[in-house]
Amino acid sequence: MSVEDPFHQRLHHIASHSLSSDTAQTSGMRRVEAISGATVGSRNLWMGQTHVAASTNSGNHHHGESETAIYVVSGNPSFVFLDEEKGEIRVDTKPGDYIYVPPWVPHREENPDPENEAVVVISRTTQEAIVVNVPDLKWIGPVAVGTAEA
Protein backbone atom coordinates (compact mmCIF):
# COMPACT_ATOMS: atom_id res chain seq x y z
CA MET A 1 0.00 0.00 0.00
CA SER A 2 1.33 3.35 -0.99
CA VAL A 3 0.32 6.79 0.27
CA GLU A 4 0.30 7.87 -3.37
CA ASP A 5 -2.49 5.36 -4.03
CA PRO A 6 -5.52 6.91 -2.25
CA PHE A 7 -7.83 4.07 -3.33
CA HIS A 8 -5.97 1.35 -1.45
CA GLN A 9 -5.42 2.84 1.99
CA ARG A 10 -6.88 1.28 5.09
CA LEU A 11 -9.29 2.66 7.66
CA HIS A 12 -8.00 3.19 11.19
CA HIS A 13 -9.94 2.16 14.29
CA ILE A 14 -8.98 3.98 17.47
CA ALA A 15 -10.62 2.27 20.45
CA SER A 16 -11.61 4.48 23.37
CA HIS A 17 -9.22 2.65 25.71
CA SER A 18 -6.26 3.46 23.45
CA LEU A 19 -6.56 7.28 23.42
CA SER A 20 -3.25 8.94 24.25
CA SER A 21 -2.65 11.74 26.76
CA ASP A 22 0.70 12.36 25.05
CA THR A 23 -0.52 15.63 23.53
CA ALA A 24 -0.47 19.34 24.37
CA GLN A 25 -2.12 20.14 27.70
CA THR A 26 -3.59 23.16 29.52
CA SER A 27 -4.02 23.40 33.28
CA GLY A 28 -7.45 22.42 34.59
CA MET A 29 -8.24 20.00 31.79
CA ARG A 30 -7.02 16.72 30.35
CA ARG A 31 -6.76 16.24 26.58
CA VAL A 32 -6.54 12.84 24.95
CA GLU A 33 -5.65 12.31 21.31
CA ALA A 34 -7.41 9.92 18.95
CA ILE A 35 -6.63 11.03 15.40
CA SER A 36 -3.47 12.93 14.46
CA GLY A 37 -0.39 12.79 12.32
CA ALA A 38 1.26 10.70 15.02
CA THR A 39 -1.57 8.19 15.54
CA VAL A 40 -2.91 7.57 12.02
CA GLY A 41 -0.81 9.72 9.70
CA SER A 42 -3.51 12.34 9.12
CA ARG A 43 -2.33 15.34 7.13
CA ASN A 44 -4.91 18.00 7.99
CA LEU A 45 -6.88 16.78 10.99
CA TRP A 46 -6.55 16.34 14.74
CA MET A 47 -9.34 14.87 16.85
CA GLY A 48 -9.63 13.91 20.48
CA GLN A 49 -11.41 14.57 23.75
CA THR A 50 -11.12 17.08 26.55
CA HIS A 51 -12.15 16.30 30.12
CA VAL A 52 -12.77 19.07 32.65
CA ALA A 53 -13.30 17.90 36.23
CA ALA A 54 -16.22 19.10 38.35
CA SER A 55 -15.88 22.68 39.65
CA THR A 56 -12.78 23.30 37.52
CA ASN A 57 -11.68 25.96 35.03
CA SER A 58 -9.01 25.45 32.41
CA GLY A 59 -6.19 27.87 31.89
CA ASN A 60 -6.52 30.50 29.17
CA HIS A 61 -5.23 29.31 25.80
CA HIS A 62 -5.67 29.43 22.03
CA HIS A 63 -4.99 26.99 19.20
CA GLY A 64 -2.86 29.10 16.88
CA GLU A 65 -3.74 28.80 13.21
CA SER A 66 -6.09 25.89 13.81
CA GLU A 67 -9.87 26.13 13.63
CA THR A 68 -11.48 24.08 16.39
CA ALA A 69 -14.88 22.38 16.42
CA ILE A 70 -16.21 21.14 19.75
CA TYR A 71 -19.07 18.71 20.40
CA VAL A 72 -20.38 18.49 23.97
CA VAL A 73 -20.72 14.82 24.97
CA SER A 74 -21.57 15.18 28.66
CA GLY A 75 -21.83 17.83 31.34
CA ASN A 76 -22.58 21.52 30.90
CA PRO A 77 -19.27 23.21 30.16
CA SER A 78 -19.02 26.94 29.57
CA PHE A 79 -16.66 28.48 27.03
CA VAL A 80 -15.32 31.93 27.88
CA PHE A 81 -13.73 34.49 25.56
CA LEU A 82 -13.11 38.25 25.67
CA ASP A 83 -15.18 40.82 23.80
CA GLU A 84 -13.29 44.12 23.94
CA GLU A 85 -16.51 46.12 24.40
CA LYS A 86 -18.55 43.77 26.59
CA GLY A 87 -15.79 42.04 28.59
CA GLU A 88 -15.80 38.29 29.22
CA ILE A 89 -18.53 36.41 27.37
CA ARG A 90 -19.69 33.00 28.63
CA VAL A 91 -21.25 30.51 26.24
CA ASP A 92 -23.08 27.90 28.34
CA THR A 93 -23.65 24.52 26.68
CA LYS A 94 -25.36 21.18 27.17
CA PRO A 95 -24.86 17.71 25.66
CA GLY A 96 -25.44 17.73 21.91
CA ASP A 97 -24.30 21.36 21.46
CA TYR A 98 -21.45 22.44 19.19
CA ILE A 99 -18.94 25.28 19.59
CA TYR A 100 -16.71 26.78 16.89
CA VAL A 101 -13.47 28.43 18.00
CA PRO A 102 -11.79 30.51 15.25
CA PRO A 103 -7.98 30.51 14.93
CA TRP A 104 -5.98 32.53 17.48
CA VAL A 105 -8.98 33.28 19.79
CA PRO A 106 -7.95 33.08 23.46
CA HIS A 107 -10.54 31.20 25.51
CA ARG A 108 -11.00 28.85 28.45
CA GLU A 109 -13.36 26.05 29.40
CA GLU A 110 -15.18 26.09 32.70
CA ASN A 111 -17.14 23.31 34.38
CA PRO A 112 -19.37 24.86 37.05
CA ASP A 113 -21.02 21.53 37.95
CA PRO A 114 -19.89 20.55 41.47
CA GLU A 115 -20.36 16.81 40.86
CA ASN A 116 -19.91 15.82 37.21
CA GLU A 117 -17.02 15.91 34.76
CA ALA A 118 -17.58 17.64 31.40
CA VAL A 119 -16.43 15.76 28.31
CA VAL A 120 -16.19 17.21 24.81
CA VAL A 121 -14.94 15.88 21.47
CA ILE A 122 -12.59 18.23 19.65
CA SER A 123 -11.65 18.37 15.98
CA ARG A 124 -8.97 20.70 14.60
CA THR A 125 -7.82 21.65 11.12
CA THR A 126 -4.19 20.81 11.84
CA GLN A 127 -2.71 17.35 12.31
CA GLU A 128 -1.21 18.27 15.67
CA ALA A 129 -2.87 19.71 18.77
CA ILE A 130 -1.65 23.30 18.76
CA VAL A 131 -2.05 24.76 22.24
CA VAL A 132 -0.68 28.12 23.29
CA ASN A 133 -1.26 28.82 26.98
CA VAL A 134 -1.67 32.54 27.71
CA PRO A 135 -1.89 34.57 30.95
CA ASP A 136 -5.30 36.09 30.15
CA LEU A 137 -7.91 36.39 27.40
CA LYS A 138 -6.53 39.62 25.89
CA TRP A 139 -5.25 39.78 22.34
CA ILE A 140 -1.86 41.40 21.78
CA GLY A 141 -1.34 42.35 18.15
CA PRO A 142 -2.69 40.05 15.43
CA VAL A 143 -1.92 36.97 17.52
CA ALA A 144 -2.39 36.28 21.22
CA VAL A 145 0.97 35.64 22.87
CA GLY A 146 2.03 32.81 25.14
CA THR A 147 4.10 29.67 25.18
CA ALA A 148 3.39 26.96 22.67
CA GLU A 149 3.16 23.40 23.87
CA ALA A 150 3.10 20.50 21.52
UniProtKB/TrEMBL annotation:
What this protein is called in its record is: Putative RmlC-like cupin family protein
The residues covered by the Cupin type-2 domain are: 51-121
> What is the scientific name of the source organism?
Actinoplanes italicus
Q: Which domain of life is it from?
A: Bacteria
Q: Which InterPro entries match?
A: Bacilysin_H2HPP_isomerase, Cupin_2, RmlC-like_jellyroll, RmlC_Cupin_sf
Q: Entry's PANTHER family?
A: H2HPP ISOMERASE
